[in-house]
Amino acid sequence: MSHPGELIIEPRDGGPADSCVIILHGLGADGHDFEPLVPALQLPAERAVRFILPHAPRLPVTINGGMVMPAWYDILEMSLDRRVDEAQLLASAARVQGLIDDQIAAGIDSRRIILAGFSQGGAVAYQAALTYPKPLGGLLALSTYFATADSIVPADANRDLVIEVHHGTQDPVVPEALGRAGAERLEAMGYAVGYRSYPMPHSLCPQQVADIGPWLGQRLAAA
User: Fold this and answer.
1) Where would I find the Phospholipase/carboxylesterase/thioesterase domain in this sequence (predicted)?
2) Left, alpha or beta for 19 (phi > 0: left; psi -120 to 50: alpha)?
């Protein structure tokens, strides 16, 4: 898979970052998809947060007739549990973990790194965060599903990871039942999970954005 890089948004005051939020976009999009979210979060100016918005590689996607598009992995069929190319998902998760490694090497404490993902990006975020060998600051799963629930081997370092799951009650792409099932599976594995639903389709909504900002602020203040 080719790796076309990432969009990086540095702290507003131009100073060095002391924390990092990595956001993974959904199928067919790119890192710019979440660029407008960064100012909308209205994080306090003193939060020196670097946002990293990676671009997925371009892959043929089976459910879209083999069309080549930005994708973290191939989706083989639109079954209720989403049959996916797990090797590609794991490769994308490893790439994201490499981005986390880079931030730690640049001086950011792992507990001040938060991973978020929307839809397909959320499935990658689940895998990357739960298997990362150092404690992270949080995981935000947006309108997504836990694709590797049956195969994942979680790292002990993130057994206490703070996880927030959001889903739209009117989602025609990833039914809310899949979002709830992922949260329940995590709880069964011993994780504490916050779950919020919103009256929206497969997207973000203003109330959700208003909730994400304080959640990120709390996570970064706690680290």
Assistant:
1) 15-213
2) beta
